[in-house]
Specification:
Shape: globular
Strand order of the largest sheet: 5-6-7-8-9
Number of strands: 12
CATH topology of the largest domain: TIM Barrel
Number of domains: 2
CATH superfamily of the largest domain: Enolase-like C-terminal domain
Structural class: alpha/beta
Order of helices and strands: EEEHHHHEHEHEHEHEHEHHEHEEH
CATH architecture of the largest domain: Alpha-Beta Barrel
Number of helices: 13
Length: 387
């Protein structure tokens, strides 16, 4: 069997009404075809601000290096791409390209052998994949609105929810200049989390995402206040990801559990975090950090330190399903993130919907990723620049 083509498809998914994401997010799906008529698919999305277009152009350039290769040689292909583009930094852009290709190769191998990916990895350690909910608060602006939305999502079977309550910092990842937040914005965040805690009670985990928006003293102050007043389950990305020294400084002053990793790439980035006890949870992104192959290695590395992984998910169905297969296989798995408002977007390009059942994902029965892309729907929703 030989690879005959590697194609990227940039689509406009249905993602709800949030002004933060409207018209600004696209997803990039990757399809690998072979000379035996079997195809695999993956995802190399990178959002927002047209990042998915950048990764799709990269996929088209990498295609020449893959045509004619044996798709079963996943590890060899991984290292070929990773080393070929090392002068781009071997992080971020190259690993995003690599991730979608790697996921597609695992999907293809599963189809050839008629096995789910988690069986190819060595089998399952659990029956379903535990979930936590993000994106349950579309349209919420006041503490009362957040409290009502939280109560509804808990009633639907969830026991762990995540939010960024610091609305002054929207759009996230774009507002870091000096790492500060106004006193008004700070208090608004406290009030939102307090209202959510009162609404859901003490037996629900509340996770806070800071989106790397703060300097060290601000992050310390915010995290400690939220932990002391509202018993948060973690404080995620407290500071920008570029400085491990800043993360260590924060770690030494906060009382809250720490989660990092969505903007770390490959096992080599996570090695430093784990060796230096910089986090209680790590959250690699399967579509950015190197695909299923690398997420498995990162998971195995973190198991040495008894640190749970909780894969980041803010993209499409390929990300959800790939992370779920790791969740079925590795023992040190906390929960898989999924975005409630994205569920229509996850499912609109699939031949059958993903089975989200409250706080768990019930794995599909098919081989590979378990559910195939619906190419007709994919082509129908292509971004205008890719038609």
């Amino acid at each position: 069997m030989k690879i005959t083509s590697v194609k990227a498809y940039v689509v406009n998914p249905e993602l709800g009404d949030s002004p933060f994401i409207k018209d600004d997010w696209q997803w990039t799906y990757v399809v690998i075809d072979t000379d035996e008529g079997i195809s695999g698919w993956g995802e190399s999305s990178n959002v927002p601000r047209k990042g998915s277009h950048i990764s799709a152009h990269g996929i088209s350039i990498v295609e020449d290096a893959l045509v004619g290769k044996d798709p079963s040689d996943i590890e060899h292909i991984w290292h070929t791409i990773y080393r070929n583009y090392t002068y781009l930094g071997s992080r971020g852009f190259p690993t995003t390209l690599l991730s979608g290709i790697d996921i597609a190769l695992w999907d293809l191998k599963g189809k050839v052998l008629n096995l789910p990916i988690y069986d190819l990895l060595g089998g399952k350690v659990r029956e379903n994949v535990p979930l936590y909910a993000n994106g349950w608060f579309d349209g919420c602006l006041t503490p009362e609105e957040y409290a009502d939305a939280a109560k509804k999502i808990i009633a639907n079977g969830h026991d762990t929810i995540k939010l960024d309550p610091f609305l002054e910092m929207i759009p996230f990842h774009t507002t870091y200049i000096d790492g500060k937040i106004s006193k008004k914005g700070e208090n608004e965040g406290y009030e939102i989390v307090s209202a959510v805690r009162e609404s859901v009670g003490k037996n629900v985990n509340i996770l806070i995402d800071a989106h790397g928006n703060f300097d060290v003293p601000t992050a310390v102050r915010l995290s400690n206040k939220l932990y002391e007043d509202s018993d948060i389950g973690w404080f995620e990305e407290p500071v920008p990801p570029e400085s491990f020294h800043a993360l260590e400084n924060f770690r030494n002053q906060t009382f809250a559990p720490v989660c990092v990793g969505e903007r770390l790439f490959t096992r080599w980035d996570f090695q430093h975090v784990l060796e230096n006890n910089l986090a209680d949870y790590i959250m690699p992104d399967v579509t950015w950090s190197g695909g299923i192959s690398e997420l498995r290695k990162i998971s195995n590395l973190s198991e040495l330190y008894y640190i749970p992984i909780s894969p980041h998910n803010a993209q499409g169905a390929g990300q959800i399903l790939a992370g779920a297969h790791i969740g079925m296989h590795v023992p040190n798995f906390y929960k898989l993130e999924h975005c409630i408002s994205f569920i229509p977007g996850y499912n609109e390009f699939l031949k059958e919907p993903i089975n989200f059942d409250g706080n768990k994902l019930v794995m599909p029965k098919g081989p590979g990723l378990g559910i195939d892309l619906d190419m007709e729907k994919l082509i129908y929703k292509l971004h205008e620049d890719w038609k």
